Amino acid sequence: METNFKDKTCAEFTAVLAGSDPVPGGGGASALAGAVGTALSHMVGSLTLGKKKYRDVEPQIREAMGKAEKLQDRLLSLIQRDAEVFTPLSEAYRLPKETEEEIARKDAVMEACLLDACSVPVEIMDCCCQAIGLAEFFAEKGSKMAVSDAGASAAILKGALEAASMNVYINTKSMKNREKAAELEERCDRMRVNGGEQAEEIVRKVIRQLRG
């Protein structure tokens, strides 16, 4: 795949996303949203460093910023990876299934491609859950002048988490190995519920601070 989606401008990426090509799709969009949410948390750290009031937590802030930067980079790379794993899956759907041999081959190829297609949004979800934890840290320890950005980070990451989960479920729905499908679905359910609840609580706390 020649196109590197993460190097496109915002306008270019959204134009491609709005078009008829199947990639980038929901997976790539959720990875981008996750990277944006993570970057917002990092920004809170940037606005906290060097402030006398927060000198005691500066080492923790720097450590959290390092983690956020790594997650942001990983999520950006997953935009491309999601597009790459879709191509073999789309080709697998077009394989012939006239004979028993062709049916067996198609089933085997489909299972492998569906598993690969699930792996990327699962990783996006994992990154988002980690980033939500960082958003909570920055909301509590970062500059109060930027607490709204920590809350916005959590809200965006929750959306990215939910979006990525649906890109798992649509693929597990087609898997013949129901045991593996159930394993993936249960893992995503846990991340979606736990990460989502954590993000919602961050948003509630931030809004209480802003409205109080």
In short:
Helix content is 80%, strand content 0%. The protein is built from six helices and no strands.
Round the Cα radius of gyration to an integer and report it. Answer: 20 Å
The biggest beta sheet reads: none
Distance between the termini: 51 Å
Mean pLDDT: 94
Q: Give the overall shape, derived from the CA principal axes.
A: elongated
Structural class: mainly alpha
Explain this structure to me?
This protein is mainly alpha-helical and 212 residues long. The chain has a single domain, classed as Formiminotetrahydrofolate cyclodeaminase monomer, up-and-down helical bundle (Four Helix Bundle (Hemerythrin (Met), subunit A)), CATH 1.20.120. The termini are far apart.
Fold topology:
Blueprint: H1 10-17, H2 26-48, H3 58-93, H4 100-141, H5 147-172, H6 178-211
Helix pairs in contact: 2-3, 2-4, 2-5, 3-4, 4-5, 4-6, 5-6
Which keywords apply here?
212 residues, mainly alpha, Four Helix Bundle (Hemerythrin (Met), subunit A), 6 helices, elongated
